Amino acid sequence: MSQAILVTLDGTVRDPQEPFLYADDLAAVRGDGVFETLLVRSGRARCVSLHLDRLERSASALDLPKPDREAWRSAIEQAAHTWAEQYTDGAEGMLRLVYSRGRESEPGGRPTAYVTVAPVPARVAAVRADGVSVVTLERGYSIDLAGSAPWALLGAKTLSYATNMAALRHAEREGFDDVVFISSEGAVLEGPRSTVIAVFGRTLVTPPSEIGILPGTTQLAVFELAEKEGWTVKTEVLKRENLIQADSVWLVSSVTLAARVTAINRYLTPVVENGSEFSDLVDRAISIDRE
């Protein structure tokens, strides 16, 4: 059985089988906190700076104390190093940063902060290789909500993921692998755990974060590299019909990396001959050292 790793911000590697969280931690009782998920590959956590940038933005949106960036970076390095020592075969790991407001019984007390590493879910290899079928589901809000209701936290990566997980369970019951959320105007938003990128020739298009979606760290890394290599990159509103018109559509995320959308609402998308070009672009983008 694979052994997970738990590291606190003081650099201590703790026994993951021993109790750690208090029962009244606000992460558990209210989902009042933020998190990030990184890929550990070849013994290194990938895109650390991009994830720490987003952790800081999410924490600010929730009025959490500003994260100690160097302490987080040190804990990430310790966790990745421990993972590499434990899995000498080079197995990939899923590294998660968790930062909550702390205990409900201690208002204004010390936040809870820790890093875990666990094996990458088995489904990841399958969707990287075979792609995913998606159903489009209404998210229930307008693209204007993010600007008019900042308390909705639409651009923050919070621990409150119950809606996202419910959407994935609904998709599975309906015979789909994943979800693409749609706004009340019919604009493409994001997946429950991914960013949408549509490919039109040598142009990559993704929805803008201003419409109420989480800015994707992997998408940002891919666009930076793609632009240097001669691709055209755009952030603009997409509609459902644009996904059908695209040469290919991808769900990208930090751990899965790139999963090609093979069907949208049971419409089978064309098989692209150069699909490996995009997935290779993603692999190379997350391997760039930005530290």
From TrEMBL:
One Pfam family from the record: Aminotran_4
One Gene Ontology biological process: carboxylic acid biosynthetic process
GO cellular component, one term: cytosol
Keyword field: Aminotransferase, Transferase
Gene3D superfamilies tied to this protein: 3.30.470.10, D-amino Acid Aminotransferase, subunit A, domain 2
MF terms in GO: transaminase activity
Family statement: Belongs to the class-IV pyridoxal-phosphate-dependent aminotransferase family.
Protein known as: Putative aminotransferase
